[in-house]
Amino acid sequence: GAVVSQHPSRVICKSGTSVKIECRSLDFQATTMFWYRQFPKKSLMLMATSNEGSKATYEQGVEKDKFLINHASLTLSTLTVTSAHPEDSSFYICSAITGNNEKLFFGSGTQLSVL
Amino acid sequence: DAKTTQPPSMDCAEGRAANLPCNHSTISGNEYVYWYRQIHSQGPQYIIHGLKNNETNEMASLIITEDRKSSTLILPHATLRDTAVYYCIVRTRRDMRFGAGTRLTVKP
Fold first, then answer.
1. Where residue B104 falls among pLDDT bands split at 50, 70, 90?
2. Distance separating alpha carbons of residues A39 and A36, to the nearest angstrom
């Protein structure tokens, strides 16, 4: 199946710093990518929908200034957690839709720990 | 606000079929049913999807009732590696939202 690469897989940072997470579709062009957040033993929570060349659409309650999403090309979307705090520690997962809009493939996730 | 209801957990004996139910009574005519699974600390893995016909692939079978208000994912010969959280999702074109899922434990 299609491959979505997410990097880094794990990051530890100090409180107040910013962290960038990359999501790439390796063998297909993704006009739409999604970003999710997951707490331990909980389900995935949709944070935002990212469309290539336009502003992301954020879910209610997700701070757009805290979680900056850029989808500059058909194969790359980035999520930047700005001025991270310990409560931002979580598992972040990206996904991308194949060209025929049928299947959603997921990255392997990024475990963010803010000290 | 997921549109599906699944049992929180199920057990299955290794080598036996695992039948995972899902209720989606408010599904609309153009909404697909998708199944994904997630093994601990990994991204979800696509399993299968369907609209109204039953579907089968190398991983599983999907049985959708005629009124489309419920479906069942069938893993024909469960192995220990099938232990995971299984998510049934009713997908709109716009996004894909996850419910709580079913934690399937395959036991030897």
1. very high
2. 10
